[in-house]
Amino acid sequence: MSTWNLRATPIIAAIIIFLVGCSSAPGSATMSEAAKPEQQDITVAAIPASDLAGLYVALHDGLFAQQGLRVTIKKIPSSQAVVAAQLNGQVDISAGSYVPYIAAQATGARFRILAEASTLRSDTRALVVPTHSNVKTIADLAGQKIGVNGTNSIGTLLISALLQENGISPKKVHFVTDKQGFPAMPGQLQQGAWQAAFLAEPYVTIAAEQYGAEILADLNQGATTNFPIDGYVATQAWAQHHPKTAAAFVRAIEEGQTIATSDAAAAQAAIGQADQLQPMVTGVMALPEFPVGPVNEKQIQREATVMLQFGALGQQYAAEVEQGTLVRSMVGPGAAQ
After folding, report:
1. pLDDT by residue (tens digit) across 207-234?
2. In the chain, what are the domains?
């Protein structure tokens, strides 16, 4: 062995010891600790619908656990039903329609859209009639009852836009809320509770498979084509007090959304497990788009504009809607413009 190597060996050994020591230094543990969620156990209130496949995939595949979270999903009939509970701190995050949150924000509540859940695609939201119904056209809806899972909700908004585009005033129909939500609505429609019903997948498919119901109109059309439907929402107070928890939740959701987008079978299986549905339903149901990335402010703005148009927001909020400040107050820094 050369003299150089003999002298270099202890120096190299010292360097290795130093590097190994650095790898286990307190700084490493601190980095890991810094990313740890402030709150590991969180409750997510969610409507039962295919729009939340990203959430179900994240739970099913252990993506929340990888982020240090233990998530409990609480089923709700509509987003509208959970707004008050969330403001009272009974729910950490909710997953559902933006409509009641935008309306609450206008009246002084403070919510934050953490991530988008779904965007409308063909047959994922539909106006459905029972088999052999006398309602054959959209014009036939005048004077009829339409079942929805929440009054002044995404359902009434989409249907109002559809009616107006077909020359019918939304005031000519009667919206009736089924407090049990989508799971009960196909049966209620069959029993004659209303002449038509607003349904989301997989309940559009269930209504057809179990009762022979028919789609009168796909709601992915006209002014509401590719419309933003559902998102993951927290109060601003919760998000400010739990920034690491919120960030961990969003990271898991982003992974879930990506899987749901690229693997329809995985999305269908996760929905089937979450909502206890048979493969004959989940295997043929339509899926929405599952957005990935920063919340798209411009997309959510479309919803506020249509809400103002059809009275889901009063005219006293027109300036906030038109200037975009209402929606902007609900999205965080880094949102897509």
Report:
1. 999 999 999 999 999 999 999 999 999 9
2. 41-119+228-328 (3.40.190.10), 125-224 (3.40.190.10)
